[in-house]
Amino acid sequence: MGCAYQSNTFCSRLDEETRKQLCVGCHIKQYARGKNLLSGYWKNKMALLLDGMMVMVESDVEDPSKTIANGLASGGDLISGLVCPQSTVGPRTTICLFDCTVAVFDERCTAALLESNVAFIKEAYTNCLHSCSQERAAMLRDVGCKDAYTSVRYVVHYCREHGLPPLTHEQIALVCNRSRPKVTAVLHELIRKEPGLFQPLETRD
């Protein structure tokens, strides 16, 4: 019987033999919505988000009592691992925005694959290039460096593109580093100006 999560975008790109090798060292972990996970949960191990949505937050270097969201992850994204760039800003926490399922792989298993399996190396680095680099760059651009409208729009667009349920206003405020009233006001404006953002992708012409 196959893994219930084998169709995620990372594992589905691997050949059958590589998937079997990876499955040997795979441990499935379940985390409830709202759970805060420190980066040490997967220290020196590769972790893959199979289902759900997470936001990565770090301490504000100017005000350690505050946190700043700087990354999002959804099903199929590597959220930790030997090939993912690590934080250099400050203590990093991952918050589960929905119930999350994570695959944590034995380090000996992934190390062996990274040493000998070119196809696995390619997929791992491609995944990290997108989830740890390109997506974070997009978030920094649209959330960290632009106005509230662009910031909230990024989050709504992200959820739609990844087939995720809409976030609450409070969750969007967390991701956007904005106040909840401001998020509510922007959402009303978005609904008026860009109603298509709130429709499922399959209804597009």
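Above is the first protein from milestone M3; the second protein from the same milestone is given next.
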Amino acid sequence: MPECPPTVDALPIGVLADPADPRLRGEHLVVVLKERRVLGHYAGGALTRCSRVGLAAGAPTGHKQREGDLRTPEGWYRTSDKPTSRWYHAIAIHYPGLDDAERGLRDGLVDQAQHDAIAAAVRADTKPPQTTGLGGEILFHGGGASDWTLGCIALEDAEIDALRSALPKDLRFWTLILP
């Protein structure tokens, strides 16, 4: 049985989130604890569902840096439905975010136009460009909760079904991915 913290106050948020951030107590928050391989759905700050997850094969640690590094990003991201995907019941994670774009510009992984396109998508609450040097197409999806993805967050099919049914119909919510 997976173990998720019972409330957002018990999350090991470290520097990735401010404990006073109102997103932590929203109606729908999905938190992934990568090291523990668990995903918790929180409503109003209280745990409603806890599921085991799988990440990338080889279990690379740390925040996603670039395309092909097999890492799962860390931090705050918005989501949306991905109705056409080869992966079971996929939900798109809106990576890269603004912090990722800033780092990518500084490190030469994106140019100014790509940076600006990512920033515009974040402001519009839409999925950012997915084909930059930062990588993309990070998803929640089914297929099994073992480590086999290329950086996505995989759940058992029954668990992604249950999660999707508990979330808003448009699948727009905040997710916080922690180390």
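Note on the second protein: Residues 112-124 form the longest helix (13 residues).
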